[in-house]
Amino acid sequence: MIEVAAAIIEDEAGRILIARRAKGKSQEGMWEFPGGKLEPGESPEDCLRRELLEEMGITIEPYAYVGANKHDYGTVMIKLIAYKASFVSGEFVLTDHDDYRWVGTEEFEEYTFAPADVPFLRMLNE
């Protein structure tokens, strides 16, 4: 099982950051809460700080555990661990994604999300 962390980053207007997986990546074309795989011995919070800086060029600060869920993609089982986080600084430079958006929770249905992220959509809409 692969442990993956996801950041649910909210801006001052209450919108959430989502990102679209680039062509050639697993889950290409699907939207997700950005994040990545935990390195051995790494906390989810440290993983999110590292991954968002590497993949998007931004600094964030995780502050609240949201939840975790397991998803079987057939070839791999992942445990997705989500944290709410604050945007601290940086200019977006995308490496694993080809687009990003700040969206309201009422807009989630307009996007096709990676299956492992879907339970968090429901949590955020409650």
Description:
Helix content is 17%, strand content 44%. By secondary structure, the chain is α+β, with helices and mostly antiparallel strands. The chain has a single domain (2-125), classed as Nucleoside Triphosphate Pyrophosphohydrolase (Alpha-Beta Complex), CATH 3.90.79.10. The chain starts with a strand and ends with a helix.
Level-2 CATH architecture: Alpha-Beta Complex
- Strand arrangement in the largest pleated sheet: 4-1-6-5
Radius of gyration of CA atoms, rounded to a whole number? 13 Å
- What is CATH's topology name? Nucleoside Triphosphate Pyrophosphohydrolase
Main pleated-sheet profile: 4 strands, mixed
Mean pLDDT, nearest integer? 94
Report the sheet-strand fraction.
35-45%
Structural class: alpha+beta
Specify the oligomeric state. Answer: single chain
Sequence of secondary-structure elements: EEEEHEEEH
Total E-strand runs: 7
Low-confidence stretches: none
CATH class: Alpha Beta
**What is the CA–CA distance across the termini?**
29 Å
Number of domains: 1
Shape: globular
Fourth-level CATH superfamily = Nucleoside Triphosphate Pyrophosphohydrolase
Please give the share of residues in helix. Answer: 10-25%
Number of helices: 2
